Structures are given as structure tokens and as C-alpha cells.
Amino acid sequence: MRLAAHPRTADLLHTALVLLADQAYDDAHRLGTSSCRTLAPPLGKSSTGCPLTWTADHRWRRRMARAFDDLAADLARGKWPEPTCTAEEMALHLAIEDAPTYLEDRPQTDAHHTLPEHGDDYSWDGCSDLLFQDHDVLMLFDSKLGGIEDPQDPTNQSMGMGDLRAAAWFAPFGSHSVRDPRRGFRR
């Protein structure tokens, strides 16, 4: 899949990333500096729906929002998003899951429908295959695998998953370039 050949897919993915970022910023704002740190669903899917992140503080949530924004910026520059850390991997998985719903919400007069069509537009499984090296982060949703986020967990070690604890989600992958740490936050 080339981005130029799939502008409709890229547009919906961009929409999903921006809206998920907004939800994460809203979650961070609602949480503020409160000592009550739990923001479990349904307040916002941007908390990832992953119980591991439900107690994350407002700073963590703002960084998660920026992960959504960073991937949206990749798309705005005409590049497929390439996750550089676990937070971005989770963000992209969530966006791929949400993106199809944004097609249903667009009227036929929306600019999205004027974009060039491609035979396999909206191939979300194809996006998932193309954009990820692995899908390890999705194991965090499986309640039967509690503890798998810890790099000392035997299953984690046998699979070579690395540190998937929420505090480590923003550490850059060794094989990727690091995003500019001075890039700030959209809001």
C-alpha cells in the first residue's frame, strides 16, 4: 500500500488520530492534577481501554495525546505513520480500529468523497499488516495475560516483547529515529 494511492484510507486514519488525540487531551484536562488518578472508560478511549493505563496521570495522558498527534502529523506530511514507541503503536492500533466509523459519519458532499478512489481503499487489515512489525502491544488487552507487560514476565521474555509497562510506553524503539523532544503539545 502506498499512501499516494490510498488518500481515502489515509484521510480516515488521520481523522481518527486527531479525534483520539482530542479525547486524550480532554482526559488529561478532566484529570488535572487531582489525586484521584483513575480515568477508566467510558470517559475516553484514549486511555486505551487497557487497564494498565487507567491510573496514568495527566502528564502521561498528554504524552499519549501527543503520540496520536505525531502519527497524524506523519500522515499530514504525506507519509504513512511509523510508530517510534509503544504509545504510538497503541495509538495507531486504536486509530485503525476507529477509522471505519468515520466513513459512516461523512455525508456524500464531504471533501473525503472527492479524493481519488483505489481498489483496496479502507483495507484496515492491510494497514495493520503494513504499519506494524508486530502486534505484541495488543496482548495488554487480554486479562488472561496479566503481568505480561513486565519485562521479567516469563511469557514476555520468551517472546522478546520488552517493557510494555505504561511508564515505558514513550521510550523510543532502538531501530527508529526519535521524535524531537522539544515539539511541544497541540493543546
Could you please describe the fold and organization of this structure?
This protein is mainly α. Helix content is 41%, strand content 0%. Helix 1 packs across helix 3 and helix 2 packs across helix 3. The relative contact order is 0.17. About 7% of the residues have low confidence.
Brief rundown of the structure:
With 187 residues, the protein is mainly alpha-helical.
What key phrases describe this protein's structure?
187 residues; mainly alpha; globular
Give the terminus-to-terminus CA distance: 32 Å
SS-derived structural category: mainly alpha
Structure annotation, total helices: 5
- What is the mean predicted local confidence, pLDDT? 81
Q: Categorize the overall geometry.
A: globular
Profile the largest sheet. Answer: none
Outline the fold blueprint.
Elements: H1 7-31, H2 58-76, H3 86-104, H4 124-131, H5 154-159
Helix pairs in contact: 1-2, 1-3, 2-3
